[in-house]
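Re: that chain you flagged

S.,

Sorry for the slow reply, it's been a week of failed gels. I finally had a moment to sit down with the sequence you sent. For the record, here it is as I used it:
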Amino acid sequence: MKKPWTSRKRIVIPDAELAVLKVLWERDAATIREVMEVLYPEGDTSDYATVQKLLDRLQARGCVARQREARANVYRATVDRDHLIRAQLHEAADKLCEGSLTPLLTQLVDAEHLSSEDIKTLRALVDRLDRQGE
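Prediction finished late last night. Pasting the C-alpha cells below so you have them in one place:
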C-alpha cells in the first residue's frame, strides 16, 4: 500500500472519482457492484465498467486500496475526507492568494450565513490555535 496522503500533496480528483470516494467514505469499504448500486441505481454493465475504471484510476493514484475478499475485490479509501479538503484548500490558496489561507477563509466566512454552532466551533478553533502559538 502506498504512503498516506500528506496535506500539501497536490491532489486533482475529478467529480466522478470524488463521487466514488464519497461512497467509500460513507461505507468504509465496498465492492465495484456496491459502488455502482449507489451511483447508478438502474445501472447496467457499462456503468459497472465505468465504476471499475474510476476505482482503477483512484488506486493508481494511491487514493484507494484493493483487497481480494471471498470472490470479490473490496476497495477502501486511503485518503480521508479531511486530508482532501485540506489539500484542496491549499491548492486554491496557492492559485488565488499566493499561498495565504486568510483571504480564502475570509471569503468563505463572509459569503456564508454561519449558524451560532458554526461560530462557536470557529471560536474554539481560534482559541486552540492561540494557545498552541503561546
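What I noticed first: The chain has a mean pLDDT of 88.

Talk soon,
D.
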